[in-house]
Amino acid sequence: MTEPDLFIDHFLPHPHFELVRSAIVDAPVKETYAAARELDCTDVRGGVVSAAGWLRMLPERWHGRRHGPPRRPTRLTIDDLDAGSAWALLGDRPGSEFALGVAGKFWKPVIAWRRVEADDFTAFEEPGFGKLVLAVSVVPYGPHRALVTVHTRVRMTDPESWLKFRRHWRAARPVIGSVHTALIRTLAANARKRALAAYARTDQA
């Protein structure tokens, strides 16, 4: 029997650190994937997420006082991230999965980000960095629902960086888990709205 093909394995097959969250969404795959792919990250809310994001940005805000104000986007979709940040869209299986990736020195108070394009991501091994992949997959869960999985993997490029990030991971792991939960909650609500709108159009036809 052939094992399932994990999209994230194409870009980061052997992680040092990993976190996965899944949930059943009351909407078909089509609407659920569209909600995930078109999610506006500025709509993602949650007490822990908001507080953690604000605290994590404090060093960058301080840094910005000397080097100009940080960018405060009013809209931030996956395509916006790919076009205007260090994050790169590594791949997209329309209707099923997509993955974003970034390199950086994640343990530093002000993270040194490095954009690595999809074609170079798997082979990127510059010492002193880590690689992070965030993947979202949507599969059917019965005829009218979907199973959403948000998957984060991190791999460091050398032993020294691994030691530094291992200490940071203890604090980062619950924050990333909260981000996963908030992402799923927001896209699930959007998916249900899309499904209701689609049903309404069908009834009117």
Mind telling me the C-alpha Rg?
A: 18 Å
What is the number of domains? 1
How big a fraction of the residues is strand? 15-25%
Rounded average pLDDT:
85
- Give start-end ranges of low-pLDDT stretches: 57-66
CATH fold title? Alpha-D-Glucose-1,6-Bisphosphate, Chain A, domain 4
> Structural class of the helix and strand makeup?
alpha+beta
Q: Given this structure, which CATH class is correct?
A: Alpha Beta
Task: Write down the overall geometry.
Answer: elongated
Give the termini separation. Answer: 43 Å
Sketch the topology as an H/E string, one letter per element. EHHHEEEHEEH
Helix fraction bin: 40-55%
Please report the number of helical segments: 5
Based on DSSP secondary structure assignment, what is the total number of beta strands?
Answer: 6
Q: What characterizes the major β-sheet?
A: 6 strands, antiparallel
Question: What's the CATH architecture name?
Answer: 2-Layer Sandwich
Q: Main traits of this protein?
A:
205 residues, elongated, 5 helices, alpha+beta, 24% strand, six-stranded antiparallel β-sheet, Alpha-D-Glucose-1,6-Bisphosphate, Chain A, domain 4
Quick overview of this protein structure:
By secondary structure, the protein is of the alpha+beta class.
Q: Topology, pairings included?
A:
Elements (H helix, E strand, L loop, with lengths): L16 E9 L3 H9 L9 H21 L10 H7 L3 E6 L3 E9 L6 E3 L3 H4 L8 E11 L5 E11 L2 H46 L1
Antiparallel strand pairs: 1-6, 2-3, 3-4, 3-5, 5-6
Helix pairs in contact: 1-5
Can you tell me about this structure?
The chain is α+β, with helices and mostly antiparallel strands and 205 residues long. 42% of the residues lie in helices and 24% in strands. Strands 1, 2, 3, 4, 5 and 6 form a six-stranded antiparallel β-sheet that branches. α1 crosses α5.
